[in-house]
Amino acid sequence: MIDRLKADFPVSYLCAKLGASPAGYYAWRNRPLSARDQRRWSLSARVLGLFVASEHIEGHRKITASLHADGVRVNRKTVASVMQDLGIMPPAAQAAFRKAAARARATEDPKDLLERDFSSHLAPGKVTVGDITYVPTSQGWLYVATVIDLASRKVLGWAAGKRQTAELIVRAMKNAMASGLVTQGSIFHSDHGSQYRSKKFAKFCAKHGIRRSMGARFECWDNAVAESFFSKLKNERLRWLSFTSRAAAIHEVSRYVRYFNQKRRHQTLGYATPDETLARLTSLAPPATTSPVAA
């Protein structure tokens, strides 16, 4: 009861936790409560005291056990009800409720529209893939996001920044769209990274008519082309270098992207470069049939 705890806690604090007003408390002191209400208030005071004594860590099960040890006969559902009325909850339970609420609000991830078929028969820009990697620098990590055309294997757009955010991949997609090849109806395939699952990126794609696709969770092979580019970037260029600043790393990534698009010959392209392949494909008439990927 408040009378028993007010020596240690302010009356206003105790009243707030017990769902009462200070005026109501002082009025209560001048009139008797029913036996049932007295038991509830007494239990509430005990529960609040045990919760505070545990430094706000213990939940209703442990507090029930402590009450049993003190000779108080009560079941854990009643203790849980009292704690709910008091508005007290340990941090672990708060985190669990937040995660459960987030899962309930989460929308279903996009389906896999590629199913590891990376041999696009569509026009350039109609099927793209992307991913995020990081580059160590003396200033901290530099994160790099890409958008790669499957038809030509050209890096159509990329972006870099000091944080791994949804804004980073939006910037990469905007740069890819600036090529004029990524248009309404284009497919963008990625992994299940939180940035690609974010509401910001989903809204951006919906606004521009870009169809999102995702491989299975924890399956790097479902996004093999995007992963392969980063492997080449690191093994052929970045592994041998160290960077004192993010700006220096961005400069080197930019140089490699130009080399990759303009000069690096790809076995999958018949040893042509992405730019050569893109020029050849854009000179051809659009195919009359569509790939199963676009179905």
- The number of helical runs is 13
CATH superfamily placement of the largest domain:
Ribonuclease H-like superfamily/Ribonuclease H
CATH architecture level-2 label of the largest domain: 2-Layer Sandwich
Biggest sheet record: 6 strands, mixed
Mean pLDDT: 84
Radius of gyration using CA atoms only: 30 Å
Structural class: alpha/beta
Strand coverage percent: 5-15%
What is the 3D form? elongated
> What is the CATH topology of the largest domain?
Nucleotidyltransferase, domain 5
Overall description:
The structure is a single chain. The protein is an alpha/beta fold. The chain has two domains: 2-89, no CATH class; 127-286, 2-Layer Sandwich (Nucleotidyltransferase, domain 5). Helix content is 47%, strand content 12%. The chain contains 13 helices and six strands. Strands 1, 2, 3, 4, 5 and 6 form a six-stranded mixed sheet that branches. α4 (35-53) packs across α5 (60-69), α4 crosses α6 (76-86) and α5 (60-69) crosses α6. The longest helix has 19 residues, at 35-53. It is elongated.
